[in-house]
Design a protein that fits this description.
single chain, about 220 residues, alpha+beta, Chalcone isomerase, about 35% helix
Length: about 220
C-alpha cells in the first residue's frame, strides 16, 4: 500500500521525466518475435529469435534461454509470465551470476516478459521494487524511480501482453530501454557502470521468493 501511494504521489513528476528520457534516446525500435520454436511455456510459444532496430539497423538476436515465472499462493503455483532472453553472444549457464555477467559481456540483449494471466500494475511495480531493494538498489534514485513510474504508466497487464527490456552499450554509457503497448516508455542513454547489472537483477539477482528461484533454475538449463 505504501509503495502504491508513493508512486501515485510522484506520477506527475515521473511522467515529465519519462517524456524527457524518450527524447534523449530514440534509437531503439519496438522488438518483434521471430519464428516460433517447439518449446512452450504455459500458453506462450518460445521464439527462436527476435529482431530489433538500433538507429535504423535491423539486428536479429537468438534465443539464449527462457523460463516461466510463477508465484506460490498457499499450495498452488499459478503462472504469471514467460521470460525469454535473446543475445548473439555465448552465455554461461553455470550459475545465475555467470549468466548475468555473460549477458553483460555480449550486448545487445533483449528480455521479454509475456503474461499468461491478467495482472494489476501495482503488483508488477511492487514486485520490481521488492527485487531491486533486495539487490541493494536505491529505488528512490534515478534512473530506477523513473523506471518504476514508467511501469505504472503502462497500466494493468493483460493475458498475452508482452513487456520488452533492451540492454545495450554505447560510447556514451550503458543504455536501457523499457517498452510496452508498442511504445518506448523509459530509456537510459548514458547510464553509469552498474546500471544494466542492477536492471538485470530483476531476473538474475538475489531472488525474493521461491517463484523467482524456480525461474532462475529454468534459465540455467542448457538447451
Amino acid at each position: 500500500m505504501k509503495n502504491s501511494i508513493y508512486w501515485s504521489q510522484q506520477l506527475s513528476l515521473i511522467m515529465v521525466m519519462i517524456a524527457y528520457a524518450g527524447v534523449a534516446y530514440a534509437g531503439v525500435a519496438y522488438p518483434k518475435f521471430g519464428n516460433a520454436g517447439p518449446k512452450k511455456l504455459s500458453d506462450v510459444t518460445v521464439s527462436e529469435w527476435v529482431t530489433v532496430d538500433f538507429d535504423g539497423k535491423n539486428i536479429q538476436l537468438k534465443n539464449a534461454t527462457s523460463g516461466l515465472r510463477q508465484k506460490q499462493i498457499l499450495f498452488a503455483w499459478p503462472s504469471v509470465y514467460a521470460a525469454q532472453i535473446f543475445t548473439n553472444g555465448k552465455v554461461d549457464q553455470s550459475s545465475v551470476e555467470a549468466l548475468r555477467d555473460s549477458l553483460l559481456s555480449h550486448l545487445p540483449v533483449v528480455v521479454s516478459m509475456t503474461f499468461v494471466r491478467d495482472v494489476d500494475f501495482k503488483k508488477i511495480v511492487d514486485g520490481f521494487t521488492e527485487v531491486l531493494k533486495e539487490n541493494n538498489v536505491d529505488v528512490k534514485a534515478a534512473p530506477y524511480v523513473t523506471f518504476l513510474g514508467a511501469v505504472q504508466s503502462a497500466g494493468d497487464l493483460k493475458n498475452g501482453q508482452t513487456l520488452w527490456f533492451v540492454f545495450n552499450q554505447s560510447k556514451d554509457g550503458e543504455q536501457f530501454s523499457f517498452q510496452a503497448n508498442d511504445r518506448e516508455l523509459f530509456v537510459v542513454n548514458n547510464g553509469k557502470v552498474g546500471t544494466l547489472k542492477n536492471f538485470f537483477s530483476m531476473w538474475l539477482g538475489k531472488p525474493v521468493d521461491s517463484g523467482l528461484t524456480k525461474l532462475q533454475q529454468q534459465l540455467l538449463q542448457v538447451k
